[in-house]
Amino acid sequence: MSQAEPTKDVAPDAKRWPTRHWPAYTAAIVLLMLVSAYGLWPAGPSDSSAVVLDDAPRDSKEPSFMPNFNKSLDQWRAQLTPEQFEVARQGETERPFTGQYWNHKAEGTYNCVCCDAPLFTSETKYDSACGWPSFFRSSTPENLHTLEDRKYGMVRTEVLCRNCGAHLGHLFDDGPQPTGTRYCMNSAALAFEKKGQEEQPKK
Ligand SMILES: [Zn+2]
User: Fold this and answer.
1) Which of 112, 161, 164, 184 does the annotation list as catalytic?
2) Phi, psi of 196 (to 5 degrees)
3) How far is it, in rounded angstroms, from Cα 167 to Cα 18?
4) How confident is the model at residue 196 (pLDDT cuts 50, 70, 90)?
């Protein structure tokens, strides 16, 4: 009759505690499954994944930077030449004096080879004698993003395309006036658009 006294038909220690903790067990198992499924668990590089960002091999990329869009590595590989892919999507550097634009003097615009975002113009290109196309200013700095790069035992400033996350090159402070900066870019990360071409009527 009285409800004050709890029933004691089951031994308190031997049988009741596992049942009572079932929600906790279930929650722990579900959590482990979620962690595994979403890749939060330490794992090796998964190159073939369709959704993985291409920044996995680049230890300099800060988690705060997310480009406007990205594609899978397979999609980039299909779009680019092998050298463009190695440089722009894998963060490699082309050998000096070998690229298409280090000694290129035509008037026009240098765009991102991956997404065609305008980055530099020939007006700010200068001969730095370093073997890579160099600019003392970006025509569209809003299209660039810089990160600290500590690869190869050096501390450098990496320059990326803000739109698609492509690795473009590095930024140095030994450029000419009026800026004193040198955007040291890889030819393989750039696509040149000759002056006048961009003024063609668009449908
Ligand atoms: Zn881009």
Assistant:
1) 184
2) 105, -35
3) 54
4) confident
